[in-house]
Amino acid sequence: MEALVDLIQRSRRTVIFTGAGVSTLSGIPDYRGENGLYKQQGGDYVFDIDMFRRDPAFFYTHARDLFYPRVPPEPSLVHQQCARLEKLGLAAAVVTQNIDMLHQRAGSRTVIELHGSPAWHNCQACGRQYPYEWAYEQVHRDGVPRCDDCRDVVKPDVTFFGEMLPDGALERACELAAEAELMLVLGSSLQVQPAASVPLVTVRGGGELVIVNKGETPLDRHCTVRFDDLAAVFEHVAAAI
After folding, report:
1. What is the pLDDT of residues 56-73, one digit of tens each?
2. Which of 69, 143, 153, 187 has an alpha carbon within 20 to 30 A of 59's alpha carbon?
């Protein structure tokens, strides 16, 4: 862990890449974990865009507790330390696969959301945008949020299977990765493409790679240092930096 602290302190440009493992520390189940969304009956179709178009109620029923919980999860120690590293000038940005907005709630300012965000919802017919708070009330009152203007279905601005990534998100993430001297991969198995290719851009550019993840990843052989326990690592980082 001292080697990790040294890497963070001497890197002139560090980028943090996060996956679902970061948010499990906040009580949000990993999608593919033992109790994850994809283990539920029909879970494989929750983020299927064709299913959403046929039956939007299927998404809002299955994802209500994940996207619109009555008691919202709090940022974990890892979210908090990512924000603190940015504030200290030791991290340039967070690139995340997550769609829970916890990095922003923890105070991170530069966050690239590769798979979109439910911060905004869009009418599928007329394109009118609505904030998360509006959608939250609609979901808990009516089940499926519908546009105030045309009454068509409103969808969270997150990337479903079968949709393109948000405009410019992957390109910006790759630009940051190419400029990075150090890439910290936290809580990602690096299985979902094309997002999982971002850390490899840093490696190919001559930067160093650190992975903290429970379970193997395809990029483990490129690591300078490698850890399994996110909580233990960031407890040490919090105390040492």
Report:
1. 999 999 888 888 999 999
2. 187
